[in-house]
Amino acid sequence: MSAVLVEALREAAAEIEDTLDTLLPPEEGPEAKLAAAMRYATLGGGKRMRGFLVLESAKPFGVARASALRVAAAIEMLHAYSLVHDDLPAMDNDDLRRGKPTTHIAFGEATAILAGDALQAHAFAILADEDTHSDSAVRIELVRRLAIASGPRGMCGGQMLDMLAEESNEPPTEASIGRLQLLKTGKLIEFSAEAGAILGKAPSQQRHALCAYGRDLGAAFQIADDVLDATATAAETGKATGKDADAGKATLVGLLGLDRARSQAERLVAQAREHLDSLGERADLLRMLADYTIDRRS
């Protein structure tokens, strides 16, 4: 990974972390445990790739940094909620996330469920707030697009497909795995890449280009995640590895093998880069991020 991207990711993660810390303040009184669980699930971990996509997609269109940071924080909250719920015993039953006990291990299952619910609700409240953007039409579009990305035709639908695939006796196909991963992981990454263009009221051509970039990036990211699950250690990733194979989960790595899956991820990254041609040098960091997606070890 280039030194330029390393520094840009570090700076963006620090800014997003500060914004999250402000938007998720500690509470006193009976709600304090819920607030603590929300902060535990969200703060102090992760590369903030989705938030970074918001910040970088906003730059070409002159969006105020404070506005982009609020949207980045909202997406990171929604992503955190999804991880809290994915880790629950009823879902993936994971005990480790980002190198520390998962939220339900630290706070109990009931509090973890509430923390996830509250993070999701708070994310939409932030997008709908005037502090995020002065134009109500922009705020409505952000809310609408995130709702689609995270709902039954997005992340939640993908999780349902994942559960059904585990229960099914039918062998997975490349198409069925691709659709599952598009919904479960790709839609939120796609929205993250589009969000800066929405904030900046970008021309439809450039907004669509960023959507396409995010879609291909998300697909490559998921394949890379599956490769890591099959090849990396828990120390490298900060979470349990090898669970997909143990659970019999449908992945492209399992279907195609490591070499063919890696080749497909490389093709997707090349496509993602091509979608950015109309943005010229303003999208250089987004191109670097696409390359990093398949080179990472965590």
Share of helical residues: over 70%
Quickly count the helices: 15
Can you tell me the CATH class?
Answer: Mainly Alpha
Q: Could you give the order of the helices and strands?
A: HHHHEEHHHHHHHHHHH
Structural class category: mainly alpha
Kindly identify the CATH topology: Farnesyl Diphosphate Synthase
How many domains, as an integer?
1
Quick one: how many beta strands?
2
State which percent range the strand residues make up: under 5%
Give the termini distance in whole angstroms: 13 Å
CATH architecture identity: Orthogonal Bundle
CATH superfamily: Farnesyl Diphosphate Synthase
Uncertain runs: none
Cofactor: Mg(2+)
Protein name: Polyprenyl synthetase family protein
Pfam family, one: polyprenyl_synt
Family: Belongs to the FPP/GGPP synthase family.
Notes on the protein architecture:
By secondary structure, the protein is mainly α. The chain has one domain: Farnesyl Diphosphate Synthase, CATH 1.10.600.10. 72% of the residues lie in helices and 1% in strands. The protein contains 15 helices and 2 strands. It has a two-stranded antiparallel sheet. The chain is globular, with a radius of gyration of 18 Å.
Blueprint of the fold:
Blueprint: H1 3-23, H2 32-42, H3 49-58, H4 65-86, E1 96-97, E2 100-101, H5 103-107, H6 109-128, H7 136-150, H8 155-167, H9 174-199, H10 204-231, H11 234-237, H12 243-247, H13 252-256, H14 258-274, H15 284-295
Antiparallel strand pairs: 1-2
Helix pairs in contact: 1-3, 1-4, 2-6, 3-4, 3-9, 4-6, 4-9, 7-9, 8-9, 9-10, 10-14, 10-15, 14-15
